[in-house]
Amino acid sequence: MLLNIRSEVKKYVGVDIILRITTKDFHIAWIKLLLFLSLGSILYLLIVNDAMLYKTPLSQVIALSSKKKIYQTDNFNNKDYQQTQILKLRILNGKYRGKTVNISNTFSSSNAYDLQYHRGQQLFISLHSLEKNDDIIITGMKRDTTIFLITYLAIGLLFMIIKMHGFLALISVLLNASFFFAAVKLDVITHATTSNVLFIFGALAVLLLGITSLLTFGRSKQTLILFCSSLGSTSIGLLLSIIILTTTNYNGINFEMMGYVTQLRVPLYLAGSILGSLGAVMDVATDITASLFTLAYRTPTLRFRDFVQAGHKIGKSVMGPLINVLFLIFLAGTLPMMVLAMRNGNSFSYSFSMIMSLGIVQSIISGIAISLTIPITTFLTSWHCSRSKKRDVL
Questions:
Q1: Correct CATH for 55-142 of 2.40.50, 3.30.980, 3.40.50, 2.60.120
Q2: In which region does residue 218 sit, left (phi positive, over 0), alpha (psi from -120 to 50) or beta (all else)?
Q3: Contacts of 381 by beta carbon, 8 Å cutoff, 6+ apart
Q4: What is the largest CA-CA distance in the chain?
Q5: pLDDT mean over 390-394
Q6: C-alpha to C-alpha distance for 367 and 326, rounded to whole angstroms
Q7: pLDDT tens digit string along 301-330?
Q8: Which member of 66, 99, 352, 391 has the greatest number of CB atoms within 10 A?
């Protein structure tokens, strides 16, 4: 009887401790959320009212009126309309700060070359004198508030959900972006030739791969395997693609659709294919490597064949969704141009060949690299895990 009472007391005490811990974690989570929202609100107000930091004249729409719509129909029966707005702007910075001006803005419903403005929006303007409103031109919208909100939300979610790993991911993104812009700048300054373009962006790919691998796994054997397998898969996939494209003489690929390119298009296209496939390859290689290392740590008696089978299953489960994700991202980027081309009387086959062929080929190159990643990463990881003892796996 006494033992039963003690066991019941222990049980209820344990439940009470769990409830206290859960309640404490709940309060901490709410405090973090409130701090996150409060800091975001303060920063938002500062950015909305940072007009004094800009040298370009900045104004805000405080009132507007719209004139009658003028409807139009083109030769392909596409219907559109034009409308003129009279905007009353209050200048927010510079020597004319606080003054108001009235200007007109003509826009179409398609917004192909123009925009419709709304009350409260902040606009950059070209302003020489308040006496002639005809000299005042809207040069663009102030978009830093939107960019800040998206960036702050992304960074906040990273820190709140995955904590330290989110910080490392942020560092990785910032470093990768910095090196990418440096590589583009180097390409522009040096007027890179075919071999130089591939060398610059090939070296960039190796650098990005090394940084991301180190920040993901640290200095470990996993990092070495991830680096070697990703580099090997991307290189072999690109080499096979170059052989196929050269053999077929690039038939069906319209490089002339790479608009505003002032250097050879083919090497620049291949450089983009390297960077495009690298991210997908690293995703697959990371999944396989991390899973097999965890499996080896928990079950050190597994043989080489067991690791190979597990690696292939993991690879097959992530390969299909990842290729589809890449393809859908590409489709989303080309959708506006496809709609525009087809609404102007072009056939689907012509629009597809002129607009989507370049992206389709890049998706296929990424698919080849992803397919090669599975056996290469599985073999390297299985070979290491099957030869290492539990304490030596990581």
A1: 2.40.50
A2: left
A3: 225, 229, 288, 289, 292, 293, 307, 311
A4: 98
A5: 52
A6: 9
A7: 888 888 888 888 988 888 888 888 888 888
A8: 352
pLDDT (tens digit per residue) in 235-284? 999 899 889 888 888 887 777 777 667 778 888 888 888 888 888 898 89
Residue with tokens 């796994």: 217
Contact 67, 86 (CB under 8 A): yes
Q: Are 58 and 127 in contact (CB under 8 A)?
A: no
The domains of the chain are located at 2-48, 55-142, 163-392
Q: 118 is written with which tokens?
A: 């709304």
Torsion, Cα of 43, 46, 47, 53 (10° steps):
-140
In angstroms, the CA 82 to CA 107 distance is: 6
Residue 159 in contact with residue 166, Cβ under 8 Å?
yes
Distance (Å, whole) CA 355 – CA 351: 6
* Residues 318 and 287 sit within 8 Å (Cβ to Cβ): yes
Here the tokens at position 391 are 């304490």
Dist. CA 53–CA 115, nearest whole Å: 25
- Rounded CA-CA distance 38/112 in Å is 38
pTM to 2 decimals?
0.73
Q: What is the distance between the alpha carbons of residues 257 and 259, in angstroms, rounded to a whole number?
A: 5
Structure token pair of residue 58:
């900045």
Rg (CA), the chain: 29
Is the CA virtual torsion 300, 303, 309, 311 positive or negative? Answer: positive
Distance in angstroms (rounded) separating the CA atoms of residues 285 and 315: 8
At residue 376 the predicted structure's pLDDT band, cuts being 50, 70 and 90, is very high
